[in-house]
Amino acid sequence: MFEAHYRQVLRFAERRAGDAETAKDIASETFVVAWRRLDKVPDTPEESLPWLYGVARNVLANEQRGLRRGGRLSARLRRTTPVAPTAPDHAEGVVTGLHLREALGTLSERDREALQLVGWEGLDTQQAALVVGCSARAFAVRLHRARRRLESALARTEQEEPRGRLRELDGELGELGTGLRLKGRRT
Q1: Chain centroid to CA 96: how far?
Q2: pTM given for the model
Q3: Burial class of residue 22, CB neighbours in 10 A (0-12, 13-18, 19+)
Q4: Cα–Cα distance between 35 and 2 in angstroms, integer?
Q5: Region 86-113: what's the mean pLDDT?
Q6: Is residue 187 helix, strand or coil?
Q7: I need a surface site. Which of 87, 130, 143, 151 has the fewest CB within 10 A?
Q8: CA-CA distance, 61 to 7, in Å (whole number)?
């Protein structure tokens, strides 16, 4: 019965359900009902297909009733439950990222590489020194100078922003921001 009528029941459900996934679910549920009520399924194919269509129609009606109930319940919950903000506003983070990209773009390739190896790749000074082929002490000096240049570049890109904004950047930059001077003090 499944092999003989599945495609027809599926097409029946597709024409009424509106989307392919729901139609597949309806067709599957129709045959589950048929299996449970096997003693009620007519013996001849001429009678069993209309019977399956009737079952599919009822399954679809149940599905639609459930969706309507769910919609009404959601509406009722929205009216009674205060809506808390689901996510923080990320606009400031986007602006910070743009300032950072702009500032990094003004640095030399050598400074960007030093900052990225430590800040983005998570390497310590000794590991980063191995990558660039110098001593750990030389890399530490290079990193220190790159951080100072980044601080200056950020100050130029954020002329409208208060100088204290670097403190917020420090948290967002992770290791990249470690050691930036804030109003004459090290972080």
Answers
A1: 20
A2: 0.41
A3: middle
A4: 10
A5: 81
A6: coil
A7: 87
A8: 20
